[in-house]
Design goal:
CATH class: Alpha Beta
Strand content: 25-35%
Oligomer: single chain
Distance between the termini: 33 Å
Number of domains: 1
Helix content: 25-40%
Number of strands: 6
CATH superfamily: NE0471-like N-terminal domain
CATH architecture: 2-Layer Sandwich
Shape: globular
Order of helices and strands: EEEHHEEEH
Length: 95
């Protein structure tokens, strides 16, 4: 089984879009806007100031935000990596 990639860096590029770096030096951009607008769970992230407050978990297996009610909104490293790879591939095909 492949090791779980750990996120070492997360930066909001624009509202809804993150630049991420994993512990194997893979860097990618993940566009979360389709998810954020589709589900009320993510309303908190529609505010640019809130989105910029992204935090990486202690072991880099998740990243997330704590909303105004103290609830954690998080995404796993593996699913983010898959999104980053898929989005990079689509970008290459379009270019």
């Amino acid at each position: 089984m492949r090791d779980i990639p750990h996120i070492v860096s997360a930066e909001a590029v624009i509202p809804g879009v993150l630049k991420l770096v994993w512990d194997d030096d893979f860097a990618g951009v993940v566009d979360l806007r389709p998810i954020i607008v589709r589900d009320k769970t993510f309303d908190f992230l529609q505010n640019a100031t809130n989105f910029e407050k992204v935090k990486i978990s202690e072991y880099g297996r998740t990243l997330g935000w704590t909303n105004e009610d103290g609830q954690l909104i998080d995404f796993g490293s593996v699913s983010l990596r898959q999104r980053a790879e898929r989005q990079a591939e689509l970008h290459m095909q379009a270019g």
